[in-house]
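User: Can you recover a sequence for this backbone? Please restate the input before giving your answer.

Assistant: Of course. Working from this structure:
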């Protein structure tokens, strides 16, 4: 089920309210994501201690390290566990206390205008695949909801104090996942526009061609289907299945065939051809621009 933000909280994930937050300054809209790592005790995973720290309930006697930190008043908006579980502590419209003394692009106090995401981990070990997947999903959700202009690491905004998310956090992979999500969104929209245009041209059919037509081994099933039939009954469903499976999308070039095939069309297919050309471009765009 796609995640949704209501009143600053992601619906249907675990919520543990932290007392450590306050209002954001009114002139500081959310514009930054800050990625962190944390594990308590350091390099140990799965325990309840991060939740306890962010809610002021850490027992100083439970571990020698805790005696040093249990009085810290810290929190983050989100915490992503090794198994991908996402926990929210502070609503996004409030200011969580994750960055401390910090500066980004000349602006101090990054807590004022950022959302903090803690990934369960440390500076000396890889993060898990599901953590990257979940991080990319929440990043997309936050980008859709707030005007996020930049994503950075804690070590970039507090370089003398902090090292997280550390050298094992794979920024390149994270950014490739964000791009993949963007490409999928753009592709979904483009396929919808093509369907709408086919409907407008009354080329969208209520029922499929005969079963044998699907057995064609020709490209575009050109011996058994009209070009628009192939779009509707083969290409679009196939793309939709890949999108639903969150799979890598293929690169393709449909426009040359359609331009040729539509030469004899009586109706005006220029808009449709333009949409198909854009679709080709989306498929070959490795990096979808911001
Ligand atoms: Zn941090």
């Amino acid at each position: 089920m796609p995640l949704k933000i209501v009143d600053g909280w992601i619906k249907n994930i675990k919520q543990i309210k932290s007392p450590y937050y306050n209002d954001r300054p009114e002139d500081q809209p959310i514009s930054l994501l800050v990625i962190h790592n944390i594990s308590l005790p350091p390099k140990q995973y799965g325990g309840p201690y991060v939740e306890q720290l962010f809610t002021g309930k850490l027992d100083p006697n439970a571990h020698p390290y805790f005696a040093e930190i249990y009085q810290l008043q810290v929190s983050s908006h989100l915490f992503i566990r090794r198994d991908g579980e996402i926990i929210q502590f502070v609503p996004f419209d409030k200011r969580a206390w994750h960055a401390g003394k910090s500066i980004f692009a000349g602006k101090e106090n990054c807590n004022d205008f950022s959302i903090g995401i803690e990934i369960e981990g440390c500076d000396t070990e890889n993060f898990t695949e599901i953590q990257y997947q979940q991080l990319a999903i929440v990043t997309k959700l936050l980008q859709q909801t707030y005007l996020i202009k930049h994503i950075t690491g804690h070590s970039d905004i507090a370089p003398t104090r902090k090292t997280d998310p550390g050298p094992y956090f794979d920024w390149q992979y994270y950014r490739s996942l964000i791009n993949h999500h963007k490409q999928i969104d753009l592709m979904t929209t483009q396929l919808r526009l093509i369907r709408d245009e086919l409907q407008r041209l009354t080329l969208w059919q209520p029922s499929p061609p005969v079963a044998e037509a699907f057995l064609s081994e020709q490209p575009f099933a050109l011996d058994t289907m009209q070009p628009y039939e192939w779009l509707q009954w083969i290409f679009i469903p196939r793309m939709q299945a890949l999108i639903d499976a969150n799979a890598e999308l293929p690169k393709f070039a449909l426009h040359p065939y359609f331009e040729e095939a539509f030469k004899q069309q009586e109706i005006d297919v220029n808009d449709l051809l333009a949409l198909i050309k854009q679709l080709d471009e989306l498929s070959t765009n490795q990096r979808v621009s911001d």
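That completes the design. The chain is about 35% helix and 15% strand.
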